[in-house]
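EI: anyone free to look at a 239-residue chain?
SC: sure, send it
EI:
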Amino acid sequence: MRLDGKTVLVIGVGPGLGSATAYMLLKDGARVIMAARSEERLREIRKVLSKYGNVDYVVGDASGQSGARKIVEEARKKVGRIDHLALLAGNYVDSPIENLTEEQLDGMINANLKSPIYALNAAVKDLGQGSSVVMVSSVFGTYATSTGNVAYSSTKAGVAKAVEVLASELSGRGIRINAVAPRAMDHDFVPERDWRSKRKLGGKSCPPEDVASVVNWLMTDESEWVDGAVIPVDGGTRR
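SC: here you go
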């Protein structure tokens, strides 16, 4: 297995991408520590995934600097070290400009941009040669345009630029950072299902496993020459 002996902190674990990513990491031999705001949800996910490997969780909110530091500190206490980071927290809101509220814009900035940056700020001292960090952008922040979501698309574009800047900053320390750029994902992850039968090229949404498989690959040595990239994972719909 490609991630034997590696510990991955996955921040932003819910019923979709986070759960699918944790599952695939476990199947690849990683030790996984999950983080999210809801302990009830984390407990349920751990119960489902524990049969596949060593998985635990910490509760916290990474959208503020102190919260991100607490997550990393608690994770460090549980696992001793962190090899890789999957920074998957995020949210979406429809926000035509004439209806955009301060709460909506601040919410998108906090969930989609502040959270991954604060999490990396808190964890970077744990990382070193061979570490990999993965964030989540969007095809609407990089490769395509859709109306009515200026707050979401702007923050996802910010993630894409952050990846470029941080890759330049951290490459000298042997730390890689990349992002996946999906379109829409379903939030119906179930372990061991035939998820490939649930989508087709050109479809507007996909199972979370499609994106999680790329996140997982970016943690492995197979992707060691990929750095500072924002990889579209959208079945070609951006075209």
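EI: The longest helix spans residues 102-123.
SC: 👍
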